Amino acid sequence: MEPLALASFASVDRTDAVPLSKQLYRSMRDAIRAGRIPAGARLPSSRAAAAALSISRNTVVAAYDLLRAEGAIEARQGAAPRVLAVLPSRTRPAGSARPVALGPRGGAVAAPARAALYAAPSGWFMPGAPDERLFPRAAWARALRKAALLPHGPASGYADYAGRPSLRDALAARLATDRGLVVSAEQILVVSSAQAAFTLLAQVLAEPGDRALVEAPGYAGARASFAAAGLEALPIPVDAAGADITRAEGLARLAYVTPSNQYPLGVRMALHRREALADWARRSDAWIIEDDYDGEFHWRGRAVATLQSIAPDVTLYVGSAAKSLMPGLRLGWIAVPEPLVAPLREGVRNLGLGANLHAQAAFETFVDDGSWRAHIRRIAAAYSARGTLLADALEDRFGAAMEVSRPDGGLQLVARLSCLEAEDRAMAALGEAGFAVAALSRYGCGEPGPPGLVIGFADAEPALVDRFCAALAAAVR
Q1: Contacts (Cβ under 8 Å, ≥6 apart) of 448
Q2: Is residue 57 scored above 80 in pLDDT?
Q3: What's the fold here for domain 374-476?
Q4: Model pTM score
């Protein structure tokens, strides 16, 4: 670690009556208290500090001695002084921090939309979390190194902010082949995540006070984006055939759905429901946001076509690499109707939602050479086996006392419980045992959903499944 540049946080004034050593001591002490000099930082030697500040070495030594006497630094013979700890500040009494009062919009943006969902902030069996151990590290490292060595030209600045043209070409071809999308490369926008896509679409396609229809139970992240844009969320009831637009009440500007794999229930939207939703959007001058949540993973029956493929004029398709690779890559995309391409591209730039350039280029390599598709096949086999393992164990252990819904796809299943009290007990016990499962009742829109647990199974291996069942049995006995 290089020594800190002393002149950037310490100063002396020769016109001041206070001795220079005390001035230097005070300015360094204040910088340590303010956190501008962190614990563990290495200070310059007394000789280097004296040269940097144009003062005598004895002055610096005296200032260092005062700091050492306070326990702020460690100074040993022949070694550079080091900061030991951040001193308690005497310049601002406790409780004197400026109060922050957020307005309605700021409060909506900063609301902890997901905190109440989970039994623990992190842990095993978290819904929607892929197994990091399955990430193709070596192949990604090679692709990323290749991307870093490429000349990117204007794209290294702010050109092509909504996606590398060659990546958009590759995505359009792959989405047409694998997901049946009717789309050109020009209609693809690359963003930093599916959440970024929801934020963009809520901001550009609706006005504060407009309504957005969302599945109930449904994804909290979409509701958070709509609330941050000042929209009112209204529920679309979900049953075994998916979201039912005929049971939604009130006019709306947007409708958010997860038709290929409903989150969190794991059902597919039936064809007649898709057609009814498309008809509603055309009659209502509204837009459909299709979140292809876990669309890569299908466990029962044949994969169904996307909603965008039957209603490309009113549907905005959102996908990401979060589950097939990892959320931390921050890679998502939107396929949009042609009239919306220009305004949404500008929206990506103005809201700062573009994706990392090198990650885009590396992902393009994965898409082009077939690595992405092959990787999905490999991890799908692993996830399918883990989902079956967990579902079998729950059914064997709890029998008729718990209804386990085997999903049509995705990385989580639902275990329904008898009442909210049982859900509360299960959440407390599982959180204590290190499992970050979610409460099904908390996925409602405006009112609680049915009691139960949403259980991720991407990391479900035999020992963990046994531990999970034991913790759950103690809670719901």
Answers
A1: 420, 441, 442
A2: yes
A3: Aspartate Aminotransferase, domain 1 (3.90.1150)
A4: 0.81
